[in-house]
Amino acid sequence: MEEEFFSESIIIPTNDRSGDLLYVEHNPPLSQIRKDSVKWNGIYLLLIHGMEGSSESHYMVSVGREALLRGYGVIRINLRNCGKGIGLARLPYNAGQSDDLETVLDFTRKTFTKDIFVSGFSLSANMALKFFGEGRPKKALAFTATSPPLDLKRSCDFIDSKAGLFYKNHFLSTMKEKVASGIYNVSDQVIQKVLKSKSFFDFDDFFTAPLAGYKNVLEYYHTCSSIRYLSGIKIPCLIVHAEDDPVVPSHVWHDINWKLYPKIETVLTEKGGHVGFISDPSPDYPEGRWLPKILMDFFDKQRKLLSLN
């Protein structure tokens, strides 16, 4: 994305007194870079990636590009020790780390604009739903959540089953590599225990939950599952999920009575996988990626409803 659009790297301290830093990529509105570009509409879009992703994940880049072309400014957030932020934090990210989202929201409001949209993907879709359902002050105008693991325990059970074997092995491998590298503030004994994890449940029990301050993994899953916060969401929200998602079980989606949540719009597709949503290339979707259009059409609609120019 840096090759197509100007990108500025920004380092933001977290607000938990850990000394950890967040590495974000700032793509200014195109009109600030090119005189003949679409006028800035006054809004910034914050994008947050999923598990073991980064600011350069395909969905972050494709949605960010679409947002810039529609007149938005964009900030792509790297979660702790992800992407170019590797080695800048001593604590890992987790699915309920809504304070880090608030940190970047506060920075954006202070530095660029108070008119902000947020788009979270996968693990960070859960984080966004939790954040906006926690009853915090409204620091964004609307948000989207793509492929969220609404119930962390049931999602863990699914990915730890035979159905999720490929993704379990992939994610566990990359997460264990980070632990083995010594970037986290843990003892050698903990590292060796974590490296023996055979499941997501074990990894979160040995590592994620205790470092996040929870007494055990079940408390972590219960406290951070976004399904508990849906009723608290007071700003417009769009949730997108695919029936064939190989990481997040669709039966959780169908157990929810979405009509109970008036602020939430939902899109459930038959195909799309996990934050993929790719079809054959067409004039409307040259790369075959149609998720950016769904998300940005929602944000454009919200902008018009709010009478923001």
UniProtKB/TrEMBL annotation:
Keywords: Hydrolase, Serine esterase. Signal peptide: none annotated. It comes from Leptospira ilyithenensis. InterPro entries: AB_hydrolase_1, AB_hydrolase_4_CS, AB_hydrolase_4_sf, AB_hydrolase_fold, ABHD4. This is Alpha/beta fold hydrolase. The keyword Hydrolase applies. Belongs to the AB hydrolase superfamily. AB hydrolase 4 family. One of its GO terms (molecular function) is short-chain carboxylesterase activity. It comes from the Bacteria. PROSITE patterns: UPF0017. Residues 45-281 form the AB hydrolase-1 domain. The keyword Hydrolase applies. The active site is at residues 122, 245, 274.
